[in-house]
Amino acid sequence: MTPAVPVSWYLLLAATLFAIGVVGALTRRNGISIFLSIELMLNAANLTLIAYSRMLDVHTGQLVVFFVLAVAAAEAAVGLALFIAVFRQRHTIDLNRINLMRW
Amino acid sequence: METLTFLVFAALALGSALVVVSHKNPVYSTISLVVTLFAVAVLFVMLGAPFVGVLQVLIYTGAIVVLFLFVIMLLNLQPRSRDESRLAGQGLQVVGAVIGGLILWFLIFFAFANSSFAALKPLTAEMVSLKTLARDLFTEYLLPFEIVGLLLLVAVIGATVVARKVPQADATTSYQKPPEGSEP
């Protein structure tokens, strides 16, 4: 049975998800919402990797996605710990008001 | 049938992704990120990567998103601080970001439109099998695997250190010393 959905549909979906994530990361001011947008972009990249891996009949892409998942977990843990530390000091995670290192 | 499944879950992923970036309350954004991740996991399975789909559900929705929810509840953000973030010029920023996102999307679209894609071959048992995936992971990709393990260890230690409560100089929350001579 040959697949009915061409791989370009998956790639277009991934591109759209990535663009939505970029818009979210640029417009939101809440640190956690920006983090969520970054996770969305990571997931779109994963979808692209899997789609190409399927098209080329190798599973290198799946292994790369495995590593991306692990790095995303590490990134979320450290980033959220940073937000907790910042919140203790400033009582906000609004990125417009965390301007200690801004010129 | 396959096309219908793709369309349903693609629409689900796009719709919930829009909610993720547009909802004001981060809790709802997080919950709708779960929906996006589930829909993308279904697409992973359709692309012949069931193991990655399972990992996506386990790690992303099971661990990372729950971590996000924990932190949101721990921080207990007041509605006041959310309202204050609606600064003047916010609308202009949103318009600019949407235009930037559209330009990005068209760039990717034209890159795709100018390339040719091989027709998908039917899935073989070897492509889907976990055994070949694991064999590659533990032979050819052993070094990256070990490095990722080390990275996770460093991240756990770093997160613990960064989020630790710094002991205050005054004795408001200090440790109560047990009375002298008491046996532990």
What does it look like?
The complex is a heterodimer of chains A (103) and B (184). Chain A has 103 residues and is mainly α. Chain A has a single domain (7-90), classed as Helix Hairpins, CATH 1.10.287.3510. Chain A has helices at residues 7-27, 31-56, 60-90. The longest helix of chain A has 31 residues, at 60-90. The N and C termini of chain A lie far apart (60 Å). The model of chain A has no long low-confidence stretch (mean pLDDT 87). With 184 residues, chain B is mostly helical. Among the domains of chain B are: 1-77, Up-down Bundle (Four Helix Bundle (Hemerythrin (Met), subunit A)), CATH 1.20.120; 129-164. Chain B has helices spanning 2-22, 26-46, 50-75, 79-84, 90-113, 125-128, 130-139, 142-163. In chain B, helix 1 runs antiparallel to helix 2 (26-46). The longest helix of chain B has 26 residues, at 50-75. Chain B is globular, with a radius of gyration of 24 Å. The N and C termini of chain B lie far apart (68 Å). Chains A and B meet through helix 1, helix 2 and helix 3 of A and helix 1, helix 2, helix 3, helix 4 and helix 5 of B.
What's the helix and strand layout?
The complex is a heterodimer of chains A (103) and B (184).
Chain A: H1 7-27, H2 31-56, H3 60-90
Helix pairs in contact in A: 1-2, 2-3
Chain B: H1 2-22, H2 26-46, H3 50-75, H4 79-84, H5 90-113, H6 125-128, H7 130-139, H8 142-163
Helix pairs in contact in B: 1-2, 2-3
